[in-house]
Specification:
20% of the residues lie in helices and 34% in strands. The chain is an alpha/beta fold.
């Protein structure tokens, strides 16, 4: 029997729920060292990552070290660009089936951005969410999810302080009711 992989969404947000400020949408200068350490520890346990094209391009030097499926609307079929990078359009290729066809994939990381997070939630692919909540308020910016089609119920598994400044790590799991 083939056991389906576990899909883990990994995100860092401001306390008011944004993954980036309007003015600086691709900077992670505001997240804590503890979040960065947590992110790298999770990344090492992941067999393949789902990431958006813009996010991949910005973080290419780091992400090129890890197997990635880069979601983009610019392809009509999956394109294996390198040993670690495949481009895929989830509106024309079934993402779940594509990943099920990959050898040895037990853990899938969902790394964002907002449209990727929403796409994976809408497709029912998210089993766990590790959301680091940093004690900063942007007031506006890029929301964690952009385009959810229905509400998704989650259960808080753990809430862990990461430092003395108030950074929290929330681990949610899909409500299987």
């Amino acid at each position: 029997m083939n056991i389906p992989p576990t899909y883990t969404l990994i995100a860092v947000t401001s306390a008011d729920g944004f993954i980036a400020a309007e003015a600086d949408q691709h900077s992670f200068s505001w997240n804590s060292d503890e979040d960065k350490t947590h992110f790298m520890a999770l990344l090492k346990r992941i067999d393949v990552n789902i990431i958006g094209n813009t996010s991949y391009t910005i973080h290419k030097n780091e992400m090129a070290k890890y197997p990635c499926i880069c979601l983009t609307r610019s392809v009509t079929e999956p394109i294996k660009k390198t040993d670690t990078l495949t481009y895929l359009n989830p509106s024309v290729t079934n993402l779940r089936q594509f990943i099920a066809g990959l050898d040895g994939v037990k853990h899938v990381g969902i790394l964002g951005g907002a449209q990727v997070y929403s796409t994976c939630m809408n497709l029912g692919l998210v089993d766990d969410i590790f959301q680091t909540i940093e004690p900063v308020y942007f007031g506006s910016g890029v929301p964690l999810f952009q385009g959810l089609t229905t509400p998704h119920r989650l259960v808080l598994n753990t809430l862990t302080p990461l430092n003395q400044s108030g950074t929290l790590l929330a681990h949610y799991q899909r409500n299987k009711r």
